[in-house]
Amino acid sequence: MELLLFLLCLFLSFTPAENEAVCSRPQLGANVEIHGLQRIYSPGAELRLSCEEGYTPVFGPHTIVCGASGAWTATKLICTLKRCPYPNQLLNGEMLYDDTTYRSVINYTCHEGYILTGSSSAVCQANATWSSDKPECRPVTCGLAPIPEFGGIIYDRIVRGNTTEYGTTVTYKCLPPYASFGNAEAKCTASGTWTKTPTCQVVTCPPPKNIERGYMSNNDQRNYDYMETIKYGCTGDYELEGSQEVFCQKDGTWSARPSCMAPCRVDIQRGRILYKGEKIWIKNFEPNKVLHKEIVSVYCMNEDRNCGYAIPTQCIDGRLQLPECFKEPSDIAYKFNSGSLPSEIEQC
């Protein structure tokens, strides 16, 4: 009975006078928090406002007062989502996220050949920090590349210790007379293993053959080792065309041999030619010989303009083709009126 009377008195003490205005619990903007659970407030009562977890206050004021009319004073308080800092780029990986606001999630993945070390995701927390540090994408590792018998390897980067990283490549070299069969390169793969290693096998070539009108630096009648070389030359005025040096190839044959190309004769009896920048009467051109690929010019007449011009032609393996415009002068014109020849008159 005493407890019932106490509660009744307590209720009456909080019941406003019949004519006294009171404020009810205010309705505020989204994500704004009101401290306390009270539902009725007397005039003059102050109410402190704040933002829900993960939100930050903008503008203000942060306190409202219950007025005598039963209305609360105005506030422009707005609560906006907190934002975590934008993450730095993940080297050798990808980051997937829509935003960096409170409760946003970043998912991390690594490129092929790399392993994620650390958390695969992070959440933006109420204190505007990420729940975990950015992870690392570390490369898959392989052991040292296998070395074939009678061969060696060259790494494309400096290797320390007994491990290599994903993407490392090696080039294989076999020691002569051994040649490499298979892919000359190998790579540390995403599975942590090396691609297939080539083999080193003995390769020899039969004695090389001489070339027509030429000679060799070595006439030994024996088998030659892989990559062993022979040099060729030409006799007399013959010119070498092609590589002077040939080598024993991986398939047991020699690389392409050169050829000895013949010189040419300027096949005219009367007239003047232009050779190596000098105008020469054909009778004085001794010996009458133009080497392979050399150029000599003969003179033609422009009848309409009455002037002469030089036309070049090239010696190709003993053949020197004269241009169609060339007309050899008569014996009389050549001997007694040489000043009228195309080579002697005004040039076009």
From TrEMBL:
The Sushi domain, residue ranges = 21-81, 82-139, 140-202, 203-262
Gene Ontology CC: one annotated term: extracellular region
Q: Give the main localization category.
A: secreted
CDD domains hit by this protein: CCP
Cited InterPro entries: Compl-Cell_Adhes-Reg, Sushi/SCR/CCP_sf, Sushi_2, Sushi_SCR_CCP_dom
Note the SS bond partners: 23-66, 110-137, 205-248
What keywords appear on the UniProt entry?
A: Disulfide bond, Glycoprotein, Heparin-binding, Repeat, Secreted, Signal, Sushi
Q: Which GO terms describe its molecular function?
A: heparin binding
Q: Which residues form the signal peptide?
A: 1-17
Task: Enumerate the SMART domains for this protein.
Answer: CCP
Matches recorded under Gene3D superfamilies: Complement Module, domain 1 (2.10.70.10)
- Return the PROSITE patterns for the record: SUSHI
**Cellular localisation:** Secreted
Provide the function of this protein.
Binds to various kinds of negatively charged substances such as heparin, phospholipids, and dextran sulfate. May prevent activation of the intrinsic blood coagulation cascade by binding to phospholipids on the surface of damaged cells.
* Name of the featured protein: Beta-2-glycoprotein 1
> What's the source species' lineage?
Eukaryota, Metazoa, Chordata, Craniata, Vertebrata
Q: Which gene encodes it?
A: LOC114443511
